[in-house]
From TrEMBL:
Domain UTP25 C-terminal: start-end pairs: 570-754
Subunit structure and binding partners: Interacts with CAPN3; the interaction is required for CAPN3 translocation to the nucleolus.
Subcellular compartments: Nucleus, Nucleolus
Designated name of the protein: U3 small nucleolar RNA-associated protein 25 homolog
UniProt record similarity statement: Belongs to the UTP25 family.
Source organism of this protein record: Rhagologus leucostigma
Gene3D superfamilies: P-loop containing nucleotide triphosphate hydrolases (3.40.50.300)
Segments of skewed composition (Acidic residues): 84-134
Annotated function: Component of the ribosomal small subunit processome for the biogenesis of ribosomes, functions in pre-ribosomal RNA (pre-rRNA) processing. Essential for embryonic development in part through the regulation of p53 pathway. Controls the expansion growth of digestive organs and liver. Also involved in the sympathetic neuronal development. Mediates, with CAPN3, the proteasome-independent degradation of p53/TP53.
Database matches in PANTHER family: ORF PROTEIN-RELATED, U3 SMALL NUCLEOLAR RNA-ASSOCIATED PROTEIN 25 HOMOLOG
Pfam families: Utp25_C, UTP25_NTPase-like
GO BP, one annotated term: maturation of SSU-rRNA from tricistronic rRNA transcript (SSU-rRNA, 5.8S rRNA, LSU-rRNA)
Amino acid sequence: MGKRRAGRELLRSLSKKQKKHLREFGEEHPFYDKLLLLLLLDSCFPFQSEDSDKSSAESDSETEVEQVSGYHKLLATLKTSPESESEEEEDESESEEAEESEAEMDSEGSQEAGEAEGGEEDKNDVPEEEEDTAEQILRQEQADGTDTSCDPRHGVTEEFTDVKHESEFSLETNFMEEESGDCNADKRDRNPFKQHMDKELEDKEIEKMSTLPKTSSQSQWPKLGQLLFSSALEKHKTLKADKEVDVKQLHLHKPLESTWPKVNKQFLSSVDKPADSPFTPLQRELFCIMNSYRDLFYPERNALTNGEEIRHVYCLHALNHVLKANAQVLSNNTKRRDRKPGTDTDDYRDQGLTRPKVLMIVPFRECALRIVHTFISLLEVNDKKKIDVSNKKRFKGEFGSDPEEKPPNLKRPEDYEAVFAGNIDDHFRIGVAILQKSMRLYAPFYSSDIIIASPLGIRTVIGAEGEKKRDFDFLSSIEILIIDQADIYLMQNWEHVLHLMKHINLLPLDSHGVDFSRVRMLNLNNWSRYYRQTLLFSVLQDPQINSVFNKHCFNYAGQVAVRNLPLTGSISHVVVQLPHVFRRLEAESVTSMIDARFQFFIDKVLPEYRDAIMSHTLIYIPSYFDYVRLRNYFKKEDLNFTHICEYTKKAAVCRARRFFLKGEKQFLLFTERFHFYKRYTIKGIRNLIFYELPTYSHFYSEICNMLKATDSGVDATWTCTVLYSKYDAQKLAAVVGIDRTAQMLQSKKNVHLFVTGEN
């Protein structure tokens, strides 16, 4: 019975191409051996049901090798599309034709095309003859005692959560260790944590923050530059930058005072004098704002230069907050245990309605991996005193990356390599519990202190209205929200971020076993949002990111935003001799801008490029919805064009690039998200049209510099046209600089010409 079922499962795991190979040659293709079946069974390790958590946790430490590679190998081998067999063969032949034609291009183009859209070729297909008996097989396996809860083919997956260490990390049943020396940590009068969380707001102040506009003031700091301080309360002080910082004056939790200088040593130069200052100049000013518990928006994060030092400083702040909060709870546990009967219980209000205190939103698993490693380094006082980290091997397997998975010899910009380093899976979430000298990974959300997740990972838990299985109660008492690399979410799905902001700090629908005598009054009054600190980091300033900071941050302590104006702009990095024509369009409002831009393009711009002499025209389109609209219009008008977007398959990308290079297609519609994720050099461009200014300013110079890749000797005919409006002031300033932007917006002229690359 077991052998027959194993054979049936092996047959089910094969795609139609593999079955065809099996019929013709009597054996499987060498690439698809029986190891695939083991991977199918082992691939369920991230998704264990709660009943099997204990056994999986025990086996976790013994099967590190399988966990590291199983998940990624499964993704690499099983992504096939639900097409018919004939369609798969057609795609295969088209891909071969595209590769043959691509060989005529240079080696770089061939290499890029061979790698393009590699993960989108196919998805696993269930044969028709097996679909009819799927329920029978499921019932038979259940009767045989087979666990199907984590089998991908049954469509039911449950992520692993650690329930084995629940009692060890429970705040309710643990007490403060005397040797830790933190029992009296909550008695420090100047402790920023205590000052912020213990402040009792009045109803009048809450009403002011809800209704009245914020007052603002500006300040110039040495490293951060121009800062905008804002607050809805009248009494707010403008913060001053600390020139020198003493670790003992920062009120860090005891172990962090000794570990932070060692962990941060890698970012300190000889000029910074590590013995005197444990912070870089940037970290010192950022932590000064963070430690005051104000909201912060820093739009100058750079993955190449300051990304890691920013990550370290917000990890320090988050860990410091959690350790102080937990120390206060454990200390009060000890006091309650030793108290005399009849003592007032209101003295021990030290918790929220749910345990999670910090929510960290990051784009990729690699980011979560680095954050957890930073936490571990900050908690380990020395090499002899290692902290106990549960499920560490499982975590490394699921969030780590295999160096062999990266295609070799791919030439990409440095910023691309920095952003897309390591495991770039964008669907994940993990709970972290920290208690004194131990850390628990994969903790259930309601037993976690810190939740690290991607926007997509948190959105799938929150769910949508009307869904039966959804949960957002764990967000009710979040005290620190960290959104790192917010610009990347514009390239993923910004709606997930907005959905999160709508569901954070709401009253929970269930009590979840909370002791209401320990809950702070601010949480019971549903005032959590007014105490939540939001830290927002981005590469750029964007209206959507600004909107989140301005409309969804209600911190009574106030907000701080870095507002430095670009002086030069990315146009200064264009190396080709090229005339840049900026054409202004008018619109009554931001909402009418989409239609106004489209009408302006088809009425004023496109007619100038319809002539055959204006061939090799690339149209750069940031918005996917604008791309679909233009694509449909081009089809309706029967224009000679091709198109590439983030959903275009490998073969279609190869054909489009070849047709455009040879001039067989006059227009190429090209989306910003495709450029963000691939960074191909498109050859054959003679005319550029920016339908809208790029989200990333350096994309402007990158696209313009692609013209030098065309060895046609007709650089005198190159053109570049850019559409903009008064609502694009931020993007325009990032491209041409603040001085030119002011002139262009104030001028009555609708056309402005700049020339780059002149001797």
